[in-house]
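Database export, one record per block. Field names are fixed; values are copied verbatim from the stored entry.
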Amino acid sequence: MSAQRSINPLDQLIVSMDKALRVIAGVASASRPTPAAHADDGQLDEAEQRHSAGLMRVNHVGEVCAQALYNSQSRFARTEAMRDQFAEAGREEEDHLAWTAQRLAELGSRPSLLNPLWYAGAYALGTVAAQLGDARSLGFVVETERQVEAHLNSHLALLPAQDAKSRAVVDQMRIDEIAHGAAAQALGAVEVPLPVRGVMSAMAKVMTTTAYYV
């Protein structure tokens, strides 16, 4: 029996709550150096700095949601391969969480005040996806990463050209998200139905629009 399976439900709940509290409190440590480390620190005027901060706050919220999704899907996954995949992806997403938090601080801004709400909603979605079986759960990952990739591409177009640090972070995030989606696809993901994709897109729109400001 694997170590994961030997953990009783109460221990699993405690671990999940600990992860949630750490993410919401902004406690994240990157296993890789931030891509912004070697990027030029371009000069931004007040409006550009505020705009970059809004976009990076949205990206930070996305990583809060990613932690919630992977935590819930890993907890309820039915195979060791699935748990390993979610754990590996979750570690890279924690890098993103730390990088975006650092960049927000450098821009003189803060994470979203609604992070507890974002986390709770994403955890619930991940739990529902996991209960539908591993193949559909993986399909949810593939569709999520597809939408995130499109979102990050839009941010690369929207960020000020001279904000090389934010752009470097977003570009590496984009590369990682593509890899996560490909890995989930390779494990046997089932395509998410079109109506569900539409709902996911609408929910993401509400989140991104709100998190830019709050």
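Remark 1: Residues 1-6 have pLDDT under 50 and may be disordered.
Remark 2: Residues 63 and 96 are 6 Å apart (CA to CA).
End of record.
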